């Protein structure tokens, strides 16, 4: 297998990653509750802030229009990805 692209995520090694159903985007989690939504082709990312502690689970809805994150701050957040 060959590496296609390497992105600087600015997150710890145990970050959680989830891939958008269409494969255009993926999301990573960081220690301080910040999520980052990445565009695969361009390699650019947008920070999603709202959790006060690390999100341990992230998942896209089946069509990818909603991202759900669950954090150790005892909150569940729904993010509109469109």
Helical fraction? under 10%
Spans with pLDDT under 50 lasting ≥5 residues?
none
Query: What is the structural class?
Result: mainly beta
Q: Write out the strand line-up for the largest beta sheet, numbering strands in chain order.
A: 1-2-3-4
Q: The biggest beta sheet, please?
A: 4 strands, antiparallel
Gross geometry: globular
- Strand percentage: 35-45%
Number of helices: 0
Report how far apart the termini are.
32 Å
The arrangement of helices and strands along the chain is EEEEEEE
Radius of gyration, in angstroms, nearest whole number = 12 Å
Q: How many strand units? A: 7
Query: What's the mean pLDDT score?
Result: 85
What keywords describe this structure?
mainly beta, 3-stranded antiparallel β-sheet, 82 residues, single chain, 4-stranded antiparallel β-sheet
Protein architecture, described:
This protein is an all-beta fold. Helix content is about 0%, strand content about 40%. The chain has strands at about 15-20, 25-30, 35-40, 45-50, 55-60, 65-70, 75-80. It is globular. The chain starts with 16 loop residues before the first strand and ends with a strand. The model has no long low-confidence stretch (mean pLDDT about 85).
């Amino acid at each position: 297998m060959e590496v296609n692209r390497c992105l600087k995520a600015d997150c710890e090694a145990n970050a959680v990653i989830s891939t958008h159903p269409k494969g255009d985007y993926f999301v990573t989690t960081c220690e301080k509750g910040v999520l980052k939504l990445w565009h695969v082709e361009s390699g650019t990312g947008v920070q999603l802030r709202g959790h006060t502690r690390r999100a341990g689970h992230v998942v896209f809805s089946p069509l990818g229009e909603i991202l759900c994150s669950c954090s150790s701050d005892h909150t569940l957040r729904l993010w509109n990805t469109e």
